[in-house]
Every structure is written in structure tokens, then in C-alpha cells.
Write a structure and sequence with these properties.
This protein is an alpha/beta fold. It contains 10 helices and 9 strands. It has a single domain, classed as 3-Layer(aba) Sandwich (Rossmann fold). It binds S-adenosylmethionine.
Length: 283
């Protein structure tokens, strides 16, 4: 349940989020920075897949929908992630032109992160966006509910014109679960062909966190379904990460296997990379 008072109190008088890390009203990313397109090439075909993904910037679910997924359910600990996803879906449904769509995102990102309601009204979206979203955005005037994660050295992933056209053609819906990943399994009611856990494990790289999480999600992974595990790590910590992944591989056998896919290096901090694994359900 949205609590506007609590949401406002999470931001200080300068509009900055008061806390570190992610929480129920932490600022959402506006533009994806994770090369979702690149990672998904290593997964099973998306066409007709039932998908569960973190919302993040909303680009992950939009990308899955654009490529023909039959269901795209989403979850996120932050309500603001749902807000950016809803704004993007509304703009796409309203047939916004590509340049205006990108322009809207850049305005939200750079010039007016704390005046979202102004951007929506300038882009003529205020009357079409869901009233709950508009109420939230109005109540949060002056708060920086969006942030730029694209200066972290992994690059900016604005959708290309082709991807945007595909997003306009395919707009699969689904449920949004506003929850911490650890409680997610209590909300789910179906099996998925793909579960996309993008980058979230970066903050909790230890056996005690990841193993129960995978065990809880197991009933919701379809036969031959996959879970994408994505984690940022410093090269000095690679041995630790590998030890953890070995433990995880042993703990999920024989119902699933875990495969290392790739490292994507950070061009700002060469000793940091995003590592991608795919857990593949066997039966
Ligand atoms: C680490 S961020 C990465 C976003 C990504 N870089 C992108 O390009 O969209 C992923 C998302 O996970 C959410 N998140 C972080 N920790 C979470 C948790 N424990 N449970 C659920 N969602 C979480 C954040 O709110 C954020 O929207």
C-alpha cells in the first residue's frame, strides 16, 4: 500500500533520498545500463516465454514484451521502479514518437529529476498515465525519485529505434509485485520460463543469502526454465565469487545446473566487471 507521507519522508529538504541502498521508495533508474539485449542472447528464446523480471528501469520488462514474451510479471523493492515502468508503458501506448520518448527520458534524467510532474504535463502524459502514478508523482514534487545509473562505466542503453518500434507492437502486461526479493516467492502463483535477477545479487554475495533464495524460487521455475544471475564484482574478489558459485552449483544439483556466461568489463574501473551466470532447470 502506498504511503505518500512515508515516501516524502524518505527524501530530505533538498529532494535527495536520505538512505543508502535500495528500499521501498528509493530512486529508480531511468535508463538501463546493463546490456539486457546482450545477456538475453544467451538465454532460451523469448517468444511465448513466461517471464518474471526485476523492474529496474522498466527496460527489462519492456524488452521481454517487445520480443514476444507471453507474460511479463515484474517485481521490485522500490515503488519508484514501477513508476518509471508505468510512465514508459503509457508513453508507448500513447504512440509517442521515438525522439519524444528519448527526450522524455533525458528530461527525467538530467534536467528535472525532481519535477517529474512537470515533465509529464509538458509531454502531455499527465492525463493518460494511471491516476495512482500521477498522484504519487505529484506528491513527490521536488524529490529526486529518479537517478542516472549510466555514469557507472558500463554505458548507456537507450533503446534503438528498432527496439522502440518492437515495444510499440508488443505490449504484454503482467503483475507487479512490490516486494523484496527475499519475500518474492510468497507472492508468486505461476511457473516461469525465464526469471531475470539483474544485478541484485551484487549487494548480497554470500551463500546464506543466495541459496535460500534459489530454493524458494525453485517451485516457480518451469521445466527447462532459466534464472539469469547477474553480479558486479571487483577482480580482487573473483576467487570469493567463484567459491560461492561452486557452493551454489552443488546446492542446486541435480535439479539445475549453473553456467558461467561472460564478464562485461567496466571501462571506468577496469578491475570491476559484471558477471553473468545462467541457472538452467533440468527437470
Ligand atoms: C541493482 S538495480 C539494477 C538496475 C539496472 N542496472 C538497470 O539498468 O535497470 C536493480 C533493481 O533492483 C531493485 N532491487 C535492489 N535490491 C532489491 C531487493 N532486495 N529486492 C527487490 N528489488 C531489489 C532496485 O530497486 C533496482 O530497481
Amino acid at each position: 500500500m502506498i504511503n505518500l507521507n512515508r515516501a516524502r519522508l524518505a527524501y530530505d529538504e533538498n529532494g535527495n533520498f536520505r538512505y543508502r541502498g535500495f528500499a521501498e521508495y528509493s530512486p529508480a533508474y531511468v535508463v538501463n545500463n546493463e546490456f539486457v539485449y546482450d545477456v538475453l542472447q544467451h538465454m532460451n528464446p523469448i517468444e511465448n516465454a513466461r517471464v518474471l523480471t526485476v523492474v529496474g528501469s522498466g527496460d527489462q520488462p519492456l524488452f521481454y514484451a517487445a520480443h514476444g514474451a507471453s507474460v511479463v510479471d515484474t517485481f521490485d523493492i522500490s515503488y519508484c521502479a514501477n513508476v518509471i515502468h508505468e510512465i514508459k508503458k503509457t508513453a508507448i501506448r500513447a504512440n509517442m514518437k521515438y525522439d519524444d520518448y528519448v527526450g522524455t527520458l533525458l528530461m527525467l534524467l538530467q534536467s528535472m529529476p525532481d519535477k517529474t510532474s512537470n515533465v509529464l504535463s509538458y509531454m502531455k502524459l499527465s492525463n493518460v498515465v494511471h491516476p495512482d502514478i500521477m498522484r504519487f508523482v505529484n506528491a513527490m514534487y521536488g524529490c529526486k525519485i529518479f537517478r542516472d545509473a549510466t555514469d557507472n562505466g558500463f554505458g548507456k542503453c537507450l533503446p534503438t529505434r528498432d527496439v522502440y518500434d518492437a515495444m510499440r507492437k508488443n505490449q504484454t502486461g503482467g503483475n507487479f509485485y512490490w516486494t523484496d526479493l527475499q519475500q518474492l516467492h510468497m507472492r508468486l502463483d505461476k511457473k516461469y520460463d525465464q526469471i531475470y535477477l539483474s544485478n541484485i545479487l551484487s549487494y548480497n554475495q554470500d551463500d546464506d543469502y543466495v541459496m535460500p533464495l534459489l530454493k524458494n524460487l525453485k517451485p516457480f521455475v518451469a521445466r527447462h526454465g532459466q534464472i539469469m544471475l547477474h553480479t558486479e564484482y571487483a577482480s580482487g574478489a573473483s576467487a570469493r565469487l567463484e567459491t560461492m558459485m561452486n557452493h551454489i552449483t552443488q546446492s542446486v544439483a541435480p535439479w539445475a545446473t549453473v553456467e558461467f556466461i561472460k564478464d562485461t568489463y567496466n571501462h571506468r574501473k577496469p578491475d570491476t566487471a559484471l558477471r553473468t551466470y545462467i541457472l538452467q532447470r533440468q527437470k
